């Protein structure tokens, strides 16, 4: 629905490209409804296969994300070139348990990346993806530096 | 609530600093609840005094934002330095009318910035701010490159 192909300013990305782009970043934003607002909060993440794993502190996110629909967004915009992309996951979040954690550490070791673990202050969430979508942002949509968009 | 000062990984920014930071960027993200998810969508914006003016295309955002609580987020993270900031506005969005538009063009001319106008494809929204908050992201909160966060 959001990615209606009839909109000429929007290029829909295939799923594989969405995951490829997610793997190139480590800071995203989680969307959670809390206090009647769709809050947007930057979070650290990593991709474990096709699973987004988010590090956050206890508080708003953990409380609001429990048993609720959340989103996760990553984007990259080149202001000079007026181009970029964004990827949005719709899903649910669950806190990583001790059992999950051991499994995640193991899969991370296998990938050759130094494994991680949360410190005392940290909590880890896994996203259960319902849907992933992405798009390329084309100049017509972000015209701040385009004189044709000005009076 | 979100900005509880008791959290040692979070430095709350004063309101004036939030607006100063917003003025340094032109790409943000609007949060709207649609289809039971808190959708996050990158948008072009500019600051008109302390009012955020957002350019978007017709569709999900306009439809979902009408008469509903929305949020607007801008952030900047230096991955190498593990530092950054984020600003979040809670508010409502209203579409810029013809009357508003003339006023905005006038205020933009006065500011010395080249005035803008939406093309046929564009719609402009003004945010009515209920609350603005910001924080500095400190290394403990985004530890992806911090070896102390790893096993």
UniProtKB/TrEMBL annotation, chains A, B:
InterPro entries: Pyridox_Oxase-rel (IPR024747), Split_barrel_FMN-bd (IPR012349)
Origin species: Blastococcus jejuensis
Domain of life: Bacteria
Protein name listed in UniProt: Nitroimidazol reductase NimA, pyridoxamine 5'-phosphate oxidase superfamily
Pfam families, sorted: Pyridox_ox_2 (PF12900)
């Amino acid at each position: 629905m959001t990615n209606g192909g009839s909109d000429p300013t929007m290029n829909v990305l295939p799923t594989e490209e969405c995951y490829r782009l997610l793997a190139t970043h480590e800071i995203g934003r989680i969307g959670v409804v809390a206090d009647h607002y769709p809050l947007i909060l930057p979070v650290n993440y990593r991709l474990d296969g096709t699973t987004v794993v988010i590090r956050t502190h206890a508080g708003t996110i953990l409380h609001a994300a429990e048993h609720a629909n959340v989103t996760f967004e990553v984007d990259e915009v080149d202001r000079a070139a007026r181009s970029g992309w964004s990827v949005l996951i719709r899903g649910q979040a669950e806190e990583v348990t001790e059992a999950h954690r051991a499994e995640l550490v193991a899969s991370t070791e296998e990938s050759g990346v130094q494994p991680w673990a949360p410190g005392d202050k940290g909590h880890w969430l896994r996203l259960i993806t319902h849907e992933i979508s992405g798009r390329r942002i084309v100049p017509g949509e972000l015209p701040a530096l385009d004189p044709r968009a000005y009076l």
